[in-house]
């Protein structure tokens, strides 16, 4: 089909018969009321060639602008296209010629290059550049180049429809993983929300949430012997690998220094029978960061038929829809991204639940000493519920501070986080500087440190303290 904007039709004095048409898009019919116009012709710029168009249908607006059309400058980067001249016309795009006009696309000449490079075809109407990316010229000022996609939507219904179509297309292409979000909550999910909503409270600048047990009266077997046995397995690795021993010592000291864990006082060693559980643990290196060790607590380790994960409610997926976030992301000019440091460890566990999070360790990784008893004071990475608890706490932060911040800031807390990653786009640098400051401040009030900031704006980056910028941009000279 071919379409012409209603504005251009009015300028041409065209009027056509109003009718209903149904367009099938990715298997989904969409019906619109349009004008059907016959008798239109298009010429090349030299008025030498004319092509008669079949029936053309009106459209309120054409979702394409001149910024999407590649130019001679863009083509000049490719030797086989360097001599092609594409006129730049100062006018809106008001006509889309569809594949039902073969004469408009019939190639009189074709330019090809190396495999993987763009090509061009000369038609009766002029040159068409295929797969040539529109270059973003770096203007003078305080901007870094960035990629931007513009999509014209009339209303939220169109956004929702596009979101649904993209999902269904991905589900068809990749049936092994259905990306659809299931809004309906199971009975267990509802129980999780009720339990967490009742227990969440703010203590010393951090949210505190009880472990979401499946039942109130939890009784756990004494698995301390199993945990000690697994600790002896770790002893062999510490004795053979000195670097591993040193990295392990630093990591464990760090979680103690930051208050994520504590040594259990001698008076509380025995604890309440049935209310104590020990985690085996081991150290692993990140495959992409071979210098970074992470100590993993094994929440799936079973003893006498139970493990902690089997006793906890996992809860519903509270993470924002990534596809919807990515569709929103390119809509404005200035982008900002940040990251919550150790997000899961910022949500604390009440004292009465901490003994379910015990572990053995050797002080200073000195395996010649007797192992000591420690316990985590925060929700434990490796259990089934911490990600849900942390996201719930972040959403709670937006609710609790709605009267202190503008609605756009609290909405960004709700809608612009994907787990611990914050990403948003705004209209200009002034707004971006305010957003970074206010979102960071709101998170800080609730125990979340938002850091590792990056932006495509020079001015925005200069407004952020160097220690809060992403690692790769900390050393940039932003005074140039």
Describe the structure.
With 480 residues, this protein is an alpha+beta fold. The chain has 2 domains: 129 residues, no CATH class; 270 residues, no CATH class. The protein is 28% helix and 21% strand. A 5-stranded mixed beta sheet has the order 2-3-6-1-7. Strands 19-20-16-21 form a 4-stranded antiparallel beta sheet. Helix 5 crosses helix 6, helix 9 runs antiparallel to helix 10 and helix 10 packs across helix 11. The longest helix is centred in the middle third of the chain and has 18 residues. The protein is elongated. About 3% of the residues have low confidence.
Short description:
This protein is of the alpha+beta class and 480 residues long. It is built from twelve helices and 21 strands.
């Amino acid at each position: 089909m071919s379409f012409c904007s209603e504005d251009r039709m009015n300028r041409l004095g065209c009027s056509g018969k109003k009718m209903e048409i149904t367009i099938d898009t990715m298997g989904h019919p969409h019906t619109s009321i349009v004008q059907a116009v016959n008798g239109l012709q298009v010429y090349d710029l030299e008025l030498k060639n004319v092509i008669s168009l079949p029936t053309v249908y009106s459209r309120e607006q054409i979702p394409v602008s001149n910024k999407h059309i590649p130019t001679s400058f863009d083509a000049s980067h490719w030797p086989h296209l360097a001599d092609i001249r594409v006129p730049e016309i100062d006018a809106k795009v008001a006509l889309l010629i569809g594949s039902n006009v073969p004469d408009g696309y019939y190639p009189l000449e074709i330019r090809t290059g190396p495999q993987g490079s763009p090509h061009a075809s000369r038609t009766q109407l002029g040159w068409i550049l295929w797969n040539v990316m529109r270059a973003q010229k770096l203007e003078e000022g305080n901007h870094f180049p960035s990629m931007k996609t513009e999509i014209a939507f009339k209303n939220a219904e169109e956004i929702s429809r596009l979101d649904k179509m993209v999902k269904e297309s991905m589900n068809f292409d990749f049936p092994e993983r259905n990306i659809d979000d299931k809004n309906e909550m199971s009975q267990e999910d509802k129980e999780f929300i009720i339990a967490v909503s009742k227990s969440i409270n703010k203590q010393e600048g951090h949210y505190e949430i009880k472990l979401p047990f499946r039942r109130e009266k939890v009784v756990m077997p004494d698995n301390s012997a199993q945990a000690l046995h697994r600790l002896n397995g770790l002893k062999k690795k510490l004795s053979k690998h000195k670097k591993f021993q040193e990295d392990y010592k630093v990591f464990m000291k760090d979680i103690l220094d930051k208050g994520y864990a504590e040594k259990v006082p001698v008076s509380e060693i025995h604890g309440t029978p049935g209310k104590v559980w020990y985690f085996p643990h081991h150290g692993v290196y990140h495959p992409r960061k071979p210098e970074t060790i992470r100590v993993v607590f094994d929440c799936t380790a079973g003893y006498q038929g139970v493990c902690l994960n089997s006793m906890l409610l996992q809860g519903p997926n509270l993470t924002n829809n990534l596809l919807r976030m990515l569709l929103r992301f390119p809509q404005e000019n200035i982008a900002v991204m940040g990251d919550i440091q150790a997000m899961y460890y910022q949500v604390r566990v009440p004292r009465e639940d901490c003994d379910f999070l015990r572990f053995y360790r050797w002080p200073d990784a000195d395996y010649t000493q007797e192992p000591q008893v420690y316990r985590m004071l925060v929700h434990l990475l490796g259990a089934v519920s911490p990600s849900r608890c942390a996201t719930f706490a972040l959403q709670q932060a937006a609710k609790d501070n709605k009267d202190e911040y503008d609605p756009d800031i609290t909405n960004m807390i709700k809608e612009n986080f994907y787990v611990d990653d914050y990403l948003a786009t705004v209209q200009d640098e002034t707004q971006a500087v305010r957003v970074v400051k206010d979102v960071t401040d709101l998170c800080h009030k609730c125990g979340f440190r938002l850091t590792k900031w990056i932006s495509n704006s020079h001015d925005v980056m200069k407004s952020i303290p160097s220690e809060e910028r992403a690692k790769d941009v900390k050393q940039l000279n932003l005074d140039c």
